[in-house]
C-alpha cells in the first residue's frame, strides 16, 4: 500500500461522526439519497436488465445482493450493475 492510500485509510478509520462538520454530513446524506434514487430509477433500464440476465450468479465467499432482486452476484457484477444504472440516468 502506498503512503497516500495508507494515510487516507488511517484518516477514514479514525474519523468519528461527531468530528465531521454539519455541512459535510449533510452533503454526504444528499449524495447517498441521490445515488439510491438514481439506482432505483434505472433498475429496469434495458442495459441493466440485459446485464442481470447474462451475469453469472455468485456462490463464493464474496456475494452482493442486487437491490430489489433475490439473486446474488459477485461484487464485480454488482459494481457493473450500479455503474450502468448510474450512467442510464445521466
Written account of the structure:
It is extended and about 45 Å long. It has a domain at 43-90. A hairpin with a 6-residue loop joins strand 1 and strand 2. It has 4 helices and 2 strands; from the N terminus they run H-H-H-E-E-H. The chain has 90 residues and is mainly α. Helices cover 61% and strands 4% of the residues. Helix 3 packs antiparallel against helix 4.
Structural class: mainly alpha
Number of strands: 2
Beta-strand portion reads under 5%
The helix content, as a percent range, equals 55-70%
Key attributes of the depicted protein:
extended; 90 residues; single chain; 4 helices; 2 strands; mainly alpha; two-stranded antiparallel ribbon
What is the strand and helix layout of this fold?
Blueprint: H1 3-14, H2 22-41, H3 46-54, E1 64-65, E2 72-73, H4 75-88
Antiparallel strand pairs: 1-2
Helix pairs in contact: 3-4
Offer a quick outline of the entry:
By secondary structure, the protein is mostly helical. It has a domain at 43-90. The chain has helices spanning 3-14, 22-41, 46-54, 75-88, and strands at 64-65, 72-73.
Amino acid at each position: 500500500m502506498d503512503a497516500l492510500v495508507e494515510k487516507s485509510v488511517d484518516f477514514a478509520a479514525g474519523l468519528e461522526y461527531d468530528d465531521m462538520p454539519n455541512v459535510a454530513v449533510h452533503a454526504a446524506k444528499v449524495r447517498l439519497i441521490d445515488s439510491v434514487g438514481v439506482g432505483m430509477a434505472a433498475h429496469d433500464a434495458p442495459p441493466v436488465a440485459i446485464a442481470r440476465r447474462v451475469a453469472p450468479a455468485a456462490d463464493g465467499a464474496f456475494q452482493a445482493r442486487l437491490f430489489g432482486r433475490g439473486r446474488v452476484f459477485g461484487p464485480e457484477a454488482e459494481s457493473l450493475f450500479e455503474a450502468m444504472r448510474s450512467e442510464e440516468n445521466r
